[in-house]
Amino acid sequence: MNQIAQTYAEALFSIGLDEKKITKLQDEGKALSEIIYDNEDFLLLLNSRFLDASERKDIANKVLKDFDEDIVNLIKVIIDNNRVDYIEDTLVAFNSLCNEYKGVKEGLIYSAFPLKKETLNNIKNKISEVEHMEVELISRIDPTLIGGVKVVINSHVYDGSIKNQLEKMQIDLLGKEL
User: Fold this and answer.
1) Residue 26 pLDDT exceeds 80
2) Contacts of 25 (CB under 8 A, 6+ apart)
């Protein structure tokens, strides 16, 4: 993780601890990540050299009007320091700090196409049962999987992908790997 993003994340985490609002800030950080993921132009505007910092901060204020003041202030500081490229990494690092604090394991779930929230929640709940701990999964698209999903938590891999099943069939049939 980038040290600049980590520093911003730690600052927000410290504020959240002091003000006893880690969960609220974490939820809003996730919501902001979704806004960024769904609207690529948002970061382009915040990073635009055609707008001065006050105009970019006004845009942030308008888009994030319902967000906690500390999230908005973090984005303004990032804009002031011309570090908009680090917003996404900062949010990821902040989420990880919150999860570590709450005792939640993080993992990645790979699929050939975007998963519905209901499907993702069902997989998350099943993995949480197996791991005997709450798990948070971050979705990644990997078209090489063909279908199914692969979940990676720490060094443990749960591979239910079609690609993996085909590789196992080949080993069984031919006695050798691809």
Assistant:
1) yes
2) 12, 15, 16, 68, 70, 71, 94, 98
